[in-house]
Amino acid sequence: MITANAFRARFLPIASAVLVGLAVALAAPAAEADSILARIDLSDQRMKVFVNGRHTATWRISTARRGYRTPVGTFRPGRMHVRYFSRKYNNSPMPYSVFFHGGYAIHGTTAIKSLGRPASHGCVRLHPENAQRLFSLIKQNGKRNARIVITR
Hints:
By secondary structure, the chain is α+β, with helices and mostly antiparallel strands. It contains 2 helices and 9 strands.
């Protein structure tokens, strides 16, 4: 028979190590979670980009024009394509596409003069250089560590 003191001496260090390991494992993903945040304001037609909680860029965008809609909510990036062409809208180029909700994506545009006002069929359009920057940030940090928030 083992005494209470002997039990504590033998198993307490093991239990402590397991608990510390569990705490570290649970804390690690939280430290990396949402390291990239793209905050899109439909009323302002701007995207603010945050990396590890720090504001790093503000870019003009174009979202849905009258008769179309850009979904509102919080999303994770889905499929990503350096080169993509819209099957629905006349093979229009969508460079550096980051799909976030079905067929909706953040992507570059050649209609740079329209940035800053609603002009799309629902996607979030960016200057191609900014689309490439966002694409690279998400690719480097992982889609699981990125979030897209769209507000009115």
